[in-house]
Each structure stands twice: as C-alpha cells, then as structure tokens.
Amino acid sequence: MRISALADRTGVPVATIKYYLREGLLPPGEPTSRTQATYGDEHVDRVRLVRAMTESAGLSLAAVRDVLSALDDPPRSRHDLLGAAQHALVADEARSDGEVDDAVRRRVDALVAARGWYDDAALAGRLAALLRDAERAGVPVGDEHLAVLADAAELVARADLATVPDAPADAARQVVVGTLLTDPVLVVLRRFAQQQASARRAGGGQGAV
Amino acid sequence: MRISALADRTGVPVATIKYYLREGLLPPGEPTSRTQATYGDEHVDRVRLVRAMTESAGLSLAAVRDVLSALDDPPRSRHDLLGAAQHALVADEARSDGEVDDAVRRRVDALVAARGWYDDAALAGRLAALLRDAERAGVPVGDEHLAVLADAAELVARADLATVPDAPADAARQVVVGTLLTDPVLVVLRRFAQQQASARRAGGGQGAV
DNA sequence: CATTATTGGAGAGTGCTACTCTCCAATGTC
DNA sequence: GACATTGGAGAGTAGCACTCTCCAATAATG
Bridge partners of A176? Predict the structure, then answer.
C-alpha cells in the first residue's frame, strides 16, 4: 500500500500522514526504492488510533506520542505500563498545577489512603489542583460528593480491567486506549443521567432548549 | 477596586483581564470617570470562574462564554438551564461528529430508552460518534462495559443533584459549574482506581514508573 | 519508450486560539 | 506639578495542527 492508499483507507489527507510521519507518530513505511515506501495494515490502525485519540479523547499530538511510545515499549508488567501511559496523560492535562495548600493535600492523601490506592504523586497533585480550583471558583467539592465520585471511579475501573483477558499482549493497549476513549463517554452519560435526575426532582419543564 | 487590584486578587495579568472584558467574558466595571472604572467582588469571582473553566475543565473561551450566558439568563427551570449549559458544552467538544451508522445509533437509542433518559439529540449524537470512533480505533466498547459506565454515571448524577438544595437561585450555577469542574476529577479518580484494580489482579510490580 | 502521475521529503505558510504588547490621552496620586 | 496608572483599541506573538509548495526520483500508462 502506498501513501495515497493509506490516505484513502483512513480518510486522512496525504499531507497529514506525511506530517504524522515527520512527527514520529507513525513509523516509516518499508522503503522499496529511494523515493517510495509501502505501508501495511498496522499503519492503517495507527492512523485511526491517532485520530481517535486526538478527536475523541482530545489529546494533543504530544500526548498521543507519549502514549504510543509507552505502548510500543516492551511492557514489563501491566501495572507499570498503565502507570506510564497515565503519566503521559496526566502530564498533558496538568498545565499549571501550581501550589496547593496543605488542607487540600491532606484531603487527597486521606482519600487515597482510605481507598487503598497506590499513592501516585502525579495523580495526587493533579487531583489536589482540581479540587483547589473548584473551591476557588466557588464550587467546592464536599467530602460526600467526592466519595461518590470515588465509588463510581472504582466501579468503572473494575469493569475496565474486566473487559480484557489476562493475556498480556494486547491487554495494555486495550485498557489504556479504551480508557482514554471512554473518558468522554462517561462525561456524556453523566449529562444524560443528570437531565433525568433533574427532571425527576423538579418535575418541571419537558425538554431541553 | 481598580483593574490592577483585580489582577492582583486573581493572579491574572491586567492585559488578560482587559482581553476578557473585550471578549465579553467579564462585565464592564462601574465607570467613575471617562478613563476609570471600579470592579467588585463579583468580578473577582467571575475571573476565577473563567480561569477554572479554561484551566481545569479545559473549555475554550467560546464555550465559557456560552456557559456564562446560559447562567446569566433568567433560568426558567433548572432542567432547561442544565440543558442549555450542556449544549454549550457538547457543542464545544463535538467538532466532527460526522456520520454514524445505524447499528451504533440503535445501541445508543436502546441505552437511552432502557435507562429512561430524555432523548437529547445532541448528546445522543455525540455518544454515537464516540462509540464509533472507539470501534474504528480497534477498542470497541461492549454492551456490558457501557452498562457499567451508565451505572456509574447515574450514581454520580444523583450525587450531583443532591449536593444542592432545592433553592433555585444559585443551584444551576452549582450544578453546571460543579459538573464541569468535576469531570476531570472523575477521570483522575478512575486512573487511581485502575492502578489499584490492576495491581490487585496482576499481583505484579510495586509502583508506577 | 515517452509522457504523465505519484512519491517521499523538507521547508514555508495558514488558520485558529488565547493571550500579550504598544500606544494614547485622560486621570489619579504623591 | 511630576510621575504613574487607567481604559480602550489595534497590532503582534506563540503554539498547535495541519496544509501547501516545491523538488528530483520513480511508477504507471499508452
């Protein structure tokens, strides 16, 4: 398959594919001459994967590159890989975590300890920053609310890991990419459920504007 | 309070505040002369709110403007307001929902019907697009997995609505902004819980990289 | 075999967003 | 009275994700 066929199969312009090649998001094709190379199905998959992560999950290309390189490295254990891919993700989102006061930090530590979670510094920092920002914005997240969010997260996480067999080969990709792509799904479902919960509570209007 | 004091209180540069004023994200101050105006605490809150929505929730300024104008309008019912604010949100994220085949559409319709949710076209379209993209990327979301996500969403949504009293005044702001800001919280918690679930399953490595 | 199309590669250019800078005369402060 | 600050508006900037242009070297086609 030449580059134009790859473009046709994926619906991505040739120029964009060249750009992805340059940026290292896509491995080079097998060169057949000095100015020609052929691409395989794995290239088609890669392009689709990149597009899904940028368009659906809203990742930057830099974050996509980090996730892909974590997935491409020989994964020691699923746990390590998950952690590596998550760091790529969190690092992307954490532009300016800034300083966090002790009270928020303690809340996060308490939550992590209570749940028996692994004390990941990057995740904890990001969470603390988010809670601080919410408070500053005048919408503090109460302990009860946070506990429900944590319950929901654990519920989802168990299902995330259960979707995949114990086979290590493709499992990491399945979990990491699947999670990335279903984060926005969860957000949309939350909106659906909120509308219903709101309607039930208010008994008011019949439909959205 | 003059503009420089507003800048000091919020930590946002004067130039940026001027920009927000121009863009209509911040109402003008009370003019005290032809070249001077004073700002109040509500301006401080607004600036912090804008920053939280852009930095934490990752909204574009255009989306922030939509959300704010929905919140500023006299809310007829909480339900309508929720809907309006959600449209602003979904519209921002849905760059290219594109075409969705019937199979995915039917899955979404079935889910919405089964849960008794209000059939919001924008939300349904976005959800269908997300499921399609996940499938294209080689990480399809199974019905069981989707059901768990929906369970979690309903769990969270009930808590979201419960955090707020029935008083209508500030309730909408509380729910809408609170949801926007806790979307990323839920994502981070999911990562925490995944690490734990993964470690428990694998019994493997001790920590993230 | 001649012509036309396509290729990989690299550099420059584009459109968009969210600022950030510069300038100005009018005010405010010391 | 001297100097700093203000609101306002326009222009400039940085980063991102492409997109376009060009090129000589191939490939495909008649």
Answer: none
